Amino acid sequence: MKPKYGCSEEDLTHYICHKTHRAPKIDGKLDDPCWQKAPKSQRFVDLVTGIPGFLDTRMAALWDNRNFYVAYWIEEPNVQARLTERDSFIWTENDVELFIAGPDGYYEFQINAAGTIYEVFYIWQDAYKKGGNFDRPEFDLASHRVDVLGGFQDASRYGKHPRGRRWAFMDWDFPGLTWAVGVDGTLNDDRDIDRGWTVELSFPWKSMEALAQGRPLPPNNGDVWRMDFSRFEALHCCGSRVEPDPGWALNRHGVYDSHIPECFSFVHFSDSAVG
Length: 275
Prior knowledge:
Shape: globular
Number of helices: 3
CATH architecture: Sandwich
Order of helices and strands: EHEEEEEEEHEEEHEEEEE
Number of domains: 1
Distance between the termini: 42 Å
Structural class: mainly beta
CATH topology: Immunoglobulin-like
CATH class: Mainly Beta
Number of strands: 16
Radius of gyration: 18 Å
Helix content: under 10%
Strand content: 25-35%
Largest sheet: 14 strands, mixed
């Protein structure tokens, strides 16, 4: 029987996010002692099939009382990134992505090897009510650039999401977010073979109020959040682009769509110190 959302419970990854008592320096190098000790994830798998990606991609996460930290290690023999304007359509290039889910909305973050980022905050329309959690100026439909996201991209096979549509706040920026990228090779140079690139992120807990919806910030020991860690790779062969772009994530979604919170991985927050 086909899973309701494309993924099943057996597909979902559980990641233990340990606490760090020394915050990493956000410089993209990932040489801080805490990252050396942090549990690195399994190799990302194909978004649809669950087969390990042919290029290695892994993540790790840490937290302290001020911030949530995420790191990515991305194998890439030809590091490319042409888009440099913030909120450009980063997914049309090689990128890594992070989705953080709340009960009635979720946040999308993308970054390429040039350090260009793209952000959107999504709110399920059935939860957008006067006097509710999202009744605040930053989510005013009349004064912000808002789009609408429907169901699955592959609706013919899996149907639309049962919650329906989402308001997509395209101009929302995560307050206090810091990020950095490191490239092990030469960016946008086809003449040599690169090793890859790394990403380092820091998200202040105080800016996650809309996502937390009453959950403790920072999380308590044992709290569980749903997040998606993924990568998309633009491939060209014999002068043509391969369609669709290979998509890899921490666990399979069973369908070529990142926007399924029910298929996001489980992140378990632990007071146990990293290492």
